[in-house]
Amino acid sequence: MRDLPAAVPPDAGRLTPPASIEDLQQALAARHYVAGRDLAVAIFLALRLKRPLFLEGEPGVGKTEVAKVLSAVLETELIRLQCYEGLDVSHAVYEWNYPRQILEIRLLEGTHALDRRSAERELFTEPFLIKRPLLRAIERTRERPPVLLIDEIDRADEEFEGYLLELLSDFQVTIPELGTIRADEPPVVVITSNRTREVHDALKRRCVYCWIDYPDAATERQIVLARVPAASARLAEEITGFVQELRRAELYKTAGVSETLDWAAALVTLDREQLDPATIDETLGLLLKNQEDIQAVRGDRAAAMLVRARAAGTKEAGPA
Amino acid sequence: MSGMAFLDNVLLFGRLLHDAGLDVHTGRVLDAIRGLDAVGIRSRAEVRATLRALLVHRREDMPTFDRAFELFFRDHRAPAPGPALFSLGERPRVVARPVPGTALRVTLEDEDSRPTAPPPSRAAGAWSPAGLSRTKDFAEFSDAELERARELLERLPWRLGTRRTRRWGRADGGEVDLRPMLRRSVTRGDLVDLPRRERRVAARPVVLLADVSGSMERYSRLLLHFVYGLAHSGARVESFVFATRLTRLTRSVASRRGGAALARLARDVHDWGGGTRIGESLRTFNTQWARRVVRNGPVVIIVSDGWDRGDPRLLSRELARIRRSCRRLIWLNPLLGHAGYEPLTRGMQAALSRVDDFLPAHNIASLEQLARHLGALPARTLPAGHARGGRPIPR
Fold this sequence. Notes:
The complex is a heterodimer.
Chain A: H1 21-30, H2 37-49, E1 53-57, H3 63-73, E2 78-82, H4 89-92, E3 94-96, H5 98-110, H6 116-123, E4 129-131, H7 133-138, E5 147-151, H8 158-170, E6 172-175, E7 179-182, E8 188-193, H9 201-205, E9 208-212, H10 217-227, H11 233-248, H12 257-269, H13 277-283, H14 291-297, H15 300-317
Parallel strand pairs in A: 1-8, 1-9, 2-5, 5-8
Antiparallel strand pairs in A: 3-4, 6-7
Helix pairs in contact in A: 1-2, 10-11, 10-12, 11-15
Chain B: H1 3-19, H2 26-39, H3 44-55, H4 62-72, H5 103-112, H6 143-155, E1 162-171, E2 175-176, H7 178-187, E3 196-203, E4 206-211, H8 217-231, E5 237-242, E6 246-248, H9 250-254, H10 258-268, H11 278-293, E7 299-303, H12 312-325, E8 328-333, H13 346-352, E9 357-360, H14 364-375
Parallel strand pairs in B: 4-5, 4-7, 7-8, 8-9
Antiparallel strand pairs in B: 1-3, 2-3, 5-6
Helix pairs in contact in B: 1-2, 2-3, 5-10, 6-8, 11-12, 12-13
């Protein structure tokens, strides 16, 4: 493998993104992330055009992982904001440290040194500020802009989306008591969504959009081999063949790539070299997390899937 | 291809996508040109990936994009099979076969042809069933009565019940709000009146699944207006219709142009007047849509007469699943209004033990009753699936 393009001169205050899509793909692969062409192009464009990257897809297809790998490739810090319902400025951007402020007031009162005007100035200064992920991402304290991961934006409510829209357009935060903080160089923003609701178009419009689908059999095999190195080529082939079959069945919640990887790790731990119906039944809980789904697949149906998976595997290998 | 010609082509392509219904404007096209410059025009696949990442931001627009790309940047292969491009944009499911002579279609197209009609004013007394019997079955309505009922339904005052959100707002009672408290204690030096905050309240979302199969035909016309009125009452409403297949209507209903929206509904729904497979339709809902649309404890309303050609066990299973994930599951049955009706259809039997409320929906009075009921939803009493038989049917 070639040297990673991330050999950055130490004086550079900015990121050095990979020079081409191929370089990017190789750099990702060196960190065990297998990216299809569409995803690689989207990441490349986001870095070049300095746009947020909006990744949408079913759970467990490796959206969050993109941000992690990207921070490794760019050799910069990863700042993560996990979204949830009710997420607001005080948890996403900043909050004043109230206990500390109250303590300070008590101290000043105790020593009879409390001058209201100066106290107000002193209490609302940086030492009393709790910086949350979004503020940390645009601060000018580090050498290089970080990767900012805004994870599962679909869990946050629409009010927060509105705020984010504003932040992503000028990368500045105004704290009434302190003033405006602005990023010199905007962070690399990665937004993920499981699509449990539609995120507003206004936000997505500002981003480079990529829908990450479940990978095809060959790609998934590569992913298993890259991530679970202890798995043999044979086992990886069987595992991905079966999972691909499983995804064809109509289930409430099918298996994502992360489930495939968990399953592969489990089978390696159990010293299995290949699949058999009994093993599948015993370990199905690693792939499917829904009682009705497990019941529907376990037994004959799983065995039939295994047969079909093997048939598809030999057909694929045949003409090659 | 020379640089300039290519640039022109990208601009033209952007226009084409815009016309096909995608959310593409000049800014996006300029991005695309910058993007192509960064990537370099080397392979068709890369050009396609670049344009797609920058010009598309909805998954459902991807097929339209792909097809437009195939057509526009044609290489010398056969074009991908599929319906005409422009039918894909606004309404991806216009594979509708014409509905043989139903009155419904005629009514809706009449609607569409007079879009200039002013929106119904909300004058005082607008909600009074002027000359309409509140207890007459919808099925016995004349065309004129239907028209009036339609207007009433669109204006029915829906109060959908509320839920507490995780978001905070200023309040009179509730938890102490530290931020303004500290502010005041510094500037005024006292902590006499403590500022308070509490969780905000928002309207409870609604998911509506309406049966539009043959046996429901007499009610279908009004059902549409029922859906429309609900969606425009300010609440978040996800609506679906089903007969043998499930179709999502949310986007079409959300459109502000009433008549046009309803006409589009009629076109979107491909199986008006067919048979019913309730269980399978609900299964599709559970596997394809539930994760995306059942959020924040919604009220799920199913409207159907329960004439089901599918497997009642499947129906029962899928209902149980919906019930587990929602705040309240309500089944509206137009037949319930008829004297002597007993829920004997297999579908209805299966449904009875799984739903929270089983209500009639055959006349104006019953829909008013529903609107009141939604405004004051009682807590759930029976655990799912435990009761075997029916439960007292409110008339």
